[in-house]
Amino acid sequence: MASKLARTLKVDLKMGLTAVLSTFVTVALIGVMPVATAHEGATGIVKERMDRFKASKTSLQTMKQALKTEDWTVLQTEAEQLNVWANEMVEYFPEGSNQAPSEARDAVWQDWDGFVRAVQAFGVTTQDLVSAVDNRSVNEATLAFKATAQSCKACHDSFRKE
Q: Which of 43, 53, 75, 111 is deepest in the core (most CB within 10 A)?
């Protein structure tokens, strides 16, 4: 009797674990699907641009966690990568590069000077972020991080499709 109960519990536990893992994988895939779908069909400079924006989003997420633990090595690496992107970004928006599945609004090219100013503002915030991280000041780095994230949002509000 005890042996039969033990086998039944093992089967129930195994089935329960399988269900939990299956649910976890499904949720993880659904979470990734919008990114994969957004980039589906992208080629050339549009794909490169989308990949760089995805990387910058990942950098911001990584930095948010690194600020909590004061991981200055990670913060330095990510801040520098964001600053490099800020200095290269306009090159990824050549005229005629707004074909689907690009998420850029036509406003990028219609208000090129405004777009360039927004990218330059991002560059200033990322340089401030690099400096704050160099100073190893959590307060400065947190403020600079928030300014950088706000700079991203402001540009996206004006120049990125929903």
A: 75
CA angle 73, 60, 89 (to 5 degrees): 105
Which residue type occupies 144? A
CB 123 within 8 A of CB 87: yes
Q: Domain count for the chain, please give it.
A: 2
| Identity of residue 13 | L
Torsion on CA atoms 81, 132, 152, 155, rounded to nearest 10:
-110
Contacts of range 46-50, beta carbons closer than 8 Å, 24 or more positions apart: 46/97, 46/98, 46/99, 46/101, 46/102, 48/92, 49/92, 49/93, 49/97, 49/102, 49/104, 50/101, 50/102, 50/103
> What's the pTM?
0.74
| 73 and 138 share one domain | yes
Domain range enclosing 138: 43-159
The model's confidence at residue 116, banded by pLDDT at 50, 70 and 90, is very high
Residue 75, pLDDT > 80, answer yes
